[in-house]
Amino acid sequence: MDRNNLYNPGEEIVETDRLIMRRLRPEDYLAMAAWDMDERVFKYLMGSVCKAPEDPLVWLPKKDPTSKINILMLVIDKEDGHAVGIYALNHDVDRDVWTLSYVNRFDDWGKGYTTEGMKALMDHAVDAYGAHSFEGECAKENVGSAKVLKRLGFAYDHSSSYSKNDGSATFESDVYIFNLTMDIEEIKDYYEQ
Question: Fewer Cβ within 10 Å of end Cβ, the chain: N or C?
Fold first, then answer.
């Protein structure tokens, strides 16, 4: 990734100590191939692995980079400028809940990027968009994703299931919630059980 083109002046930016996040652009498709073409990364995702780096160009240009309900951010490592993944928040206006989603390239798993980046993105959504309720869902067997949600302060809400878009797999899942009005003691009690 070109370090001189990490972000444009005036562009929506979220930063942490190690990461820069900016809105996803069509020209990011080549960087996305690092995770979009990796079966290991897509095991629990609803979509399917891309067959060619250009596959995201079918949907990527249709995304509104100024949307206030679909916040889709490219995550960049500040140290070397490589693209780590995509972190997103989608606002279900009817329920007034922001749903988290995230994907990292495989060689960046286990480095704490997702917890660090999603916390910053959630804080940004609170400040910029008035977000106050969040949810995340992960396959029961995807313990790494469940750990991320718990580290972010989410509490188990209910069990569910979801299927891959192509119908190739269905996963039993857990849905976690985080609400700024939740009592911190309520969250602590849950995790001490």
Answer: C
